[in-house]
Write a structure and sequence with these properties.
Helix content: 40-55%
CATH class: Alpha Beta
Shape: globular
Distance between the termini: 26 Å
CATH architecture: Alpha-Beta Barrel
Bound molecules: zinc ion
Largest sheet: 8 strands, parallel
Mean pLDDT: 95
Low-confidence stretches: none
Number of helices: 9
CATH superfamily: Metal-dependent hydrolases
Strand content: 5-15%
Strand order of the largest sheet: 1-2-3-4-5-6-7-8
Radius of gyration: 17 Å
Order of helices and strands: EHEHEHEHEHEHEHEHH
Length: 257
């Protein structure tokens, strides 16, 4: 099983990262993908992936952490990509968030630049959305972005899911489906093809049902798996095999070397 989205570089894991990883491996997690958020995070991610052969990384500027002048961050990203020891699997976590205090026009400008960086590097992207599906789809189209990627922590209707799938995107399945009230999203994940899904936790955020207010960690991905298995009436081992194959297909075929 692969946790395709966990922020293990965050400070909250600094003191007990080894036990967090051990608990996850014990629960059956075979790979971890840490998406990027800020330049200082990229350094920590690079160190973690050097120490642990089962940790993959992506680099990018997350919309939560943008500020007034993002030119230096974008410049740092290009520099980091040209100097890092190992190429990341993707550019991300990038995207648009309608609930943060950064003007939409600035978020769009930074997103467009990073879509361009992904195109140039031949890499897929990890997209963050919050109340922004319409605008995100518009940007992918406007930028003629065709390297695919994943919509992390997807929530939304089947129609929106299909719009992303048509553009070559996979959907990240996270803790949202462990909540009975998330009816629309649960219905979507019940019906879309299994070949379009990746499992994720978004640790330390998005705690599963029953764990609200606590730090999330990759070991809890089992709860996402069992909810998905119940919803789709499909065997857990089958879900693990197919979502892991989806991960390899998305993140290895786009590498240019
Ligand atoms: Zn994230």
């Amino acid at each position: 099983m692969i946790d395709s989205h966990c922020h293990l570089d965050f400070d909250t894991f600094r003191d007990d990262i080894d036990s967090v990883l051990a608990r996850a491996r014990q629960a059956g997690v075979r790979r971890f993908l840490i998406p990027g958020t800020t330049p200082s995070g990229w350094q920590r991610q690079a160190a973690l992936s050097q120490q642990h052969s089962d940790i993959d990384v992506a680099y990018g500027l997350h919309p939560y952490f943008l500020h007034d002048d993002n030119q230096s961050g974008l410049h740092a990203l290009s520099e980091h990509l040209s100097h890092c020891d190992a190429m990341p699997l993707a550019i991300g976590e990038i995207g648009l968030d309608a609930t943060v205090d950064i003007p939409e026009s600035e978020q769009v400008a930074v997103l467009d630049k990073q879509l361009g960086i992904a195109k140039d590097a031949g890499l897929p992207v990890i997209l963050h959305h919050r109340k922004t599906h319409h605008l995100l789809l518009e940007r992918l189209k406007a930028m003629k972005y065709e390297n695919g990627g994943v919509i992390h922590a997807f929530s939304g209707s089947q129609q929106v899911a299909e719009d992303y799938i048509e553009r070559g995107f996979l959907l990240g399945v996270g803790g949202t489906i462990t909540y009975a009230r998330a009816q629309k999203t649960r219905e979507t994940f019940k019906n879309v093809p299994l070949g379009t899904l990746l499992l994720e936790t978004d640790s330390p955020d998005m705690p599963m049902s029953g764990r609200q207010g606590k730090r999330n960690e990759p070991a809890f991905i089992r709860q996402v798996l069992s909810s998905l298995s119940e919803l789709r009436e499909e065997d857990e081992q089958h879900l693990i095999a197919v979502t892991s194959a989806n991960y390899s297909r998305l993140f290895s075929s786009k590498e240019t070397g």
